[in-house]
Amino acid sequence: MSEDKPVLINNDFPPQAALLWNKIPQDKQQLILNNVYCVQCCVAVTMVNISGLLEGSSLVLKGSCGVCGGHVARVIEELN
Ligand SMILES: [Zn+2]
Predict the structure, then answer these.
(1) What element of type H or E holds 15?
(2) What one-character-per-residue DSSP string does 16-55 give?
(3) What is the pLDDT of residue 68?
(4) Which whole number is the average pLDDT over 17-46?
(5) Tens digits of per-residue pLDDT, 48-65?
(6) d(CA 28, CA 76)
(7) d(CA 8, ligand 1 centre) in Å
(8) Would you kindly state where each structural domain of the chain is located, as residue ranges?
């Protein structure tokens, strides 16, 4: 195991959203970010330029497709 660097992300993460995100183990964070469905590529892609927000008790990740640059989003509902 090398150094675990947090899978964060940029300053567009509000503190409350970051709090939820940081509860997720890093390997799972990576898994989430590397398996985002892109409607344009029609495959699971890696999300880049990630920002996050809270919608109710769900954490919503928004970003760009690492392949085509299109908008992708992922809702994480299992957190509350
Ligand atoms: Zn794409």
Answers:
(1) helix 15-23
(2) HHHHHHHHS-HHHHHHHHT-EEETTTTEEE-EEEEEEEEE
(3) 98
(4) 93
(5) 999 999 988 899 999 999
(6) 12
(7) 21
(8) 15-76
Q: How far is the CA of 72 from the centre of ligand 1 (A)?
A: 8
In the structure, what pLDDT confidence band is assigned to residue 13 with cuts at 50, 70 and 90?
confident
Taking CA atoms, 45 is separated from 10, 23, 31, 48, 58, in Å, by 19, 23, 11, 9, 21
| CA 5 to centroid of ligand 1, rounded, Å | 26
Q: Report how far ligand 1's centroid is from the alpha carbon of 2 (Å).
A: 30
pTM of the model: 0.78
